[in-house]
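so my prof wants the structure for this chain in the tokens format not the other one, which i didnt know existed until like an hour ago. anyway here's the sequence
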Amino acid sequence: RLAARPGLTVGALARRLARGRLDELPAAHACFQLGYDRLGQEQARAFRLLALADGPGFSTGAAAASLGLCRHHADDLVETLADRSLLECLGPGRYRYHDLLRLFALREAETAEPPGERVAALRGLLDFHLASARDALRVLEPGDPGTEPATSRSAGIRPATPREAGTWLFLEHGSVLAAIERAAGERGGPLPLAADVLLTMAGFLDHGWNPRELEHAARAVRDAACRQGMFSAQARAECVLGRVHVHQGGGGRGRRAVRAPHPRYRAPGGGPERDGPGPPRGEPRPQPGDGHPERPRPRD
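here's what i got, hopefully its the right format
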């Protein structure tokens, strides 16, 4: 492609590929298609859906949660994909896509998977990450009231020691944030669940984590929630942005600067947060950049 277009620079071609322009490399596309066409139905489904989380890698547990399968079955599928060079094995129970293969898999997912299947895969993945993050945070900060038990259907990874919890954070934080951003960008994605995971991940700000990575994901959730009128999810994202801001300016004080969204965004009786059509009648709707929402003062 570069030889046929003298005016096209390597940088320009790289940027076009980064935007998902796999057609720029027709030979690579044909090679990927040949390997994909040889997959069985279940293997092809796994290849498509596991690409939805654009992270640096994923575990067997995350794959099982995304596909709605037991870990043993998911392990068999990803091992088959690795044997056929459609996935790269990074170590025991951990895999990743080559960047171009991920683009190919995402294209196939958009055309072959109904929107409900993609959303279900993201929901399963985020549910797994939520349970894992809360379990890891509970180990790192025992007795902290902000590390309430995980309210998810997944078992998560359940680290037993602070060392295991720190290892989980080191390995998985990029994948968790990628799943959050994918949910924010997917039409009809599980945005409230993504906001829950985001808020939980903010608890790791005091454990050597770069807050800029969290900020990028929080902005993605906030903007998507604002567009869709999901004000509970927007409030949680604003909460995280506030904690990031205070953490950057005030050191370790930022972790507890904002503990939870405003009470009006929580269900009666202190239950789990729910997204609704918006704030009660007569109250202003929060906008991006407003910060943590406050109740309006009574008018004269």
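also thought this was worth mentioning. Strands lie at 58-59, 88-91, 94-96.
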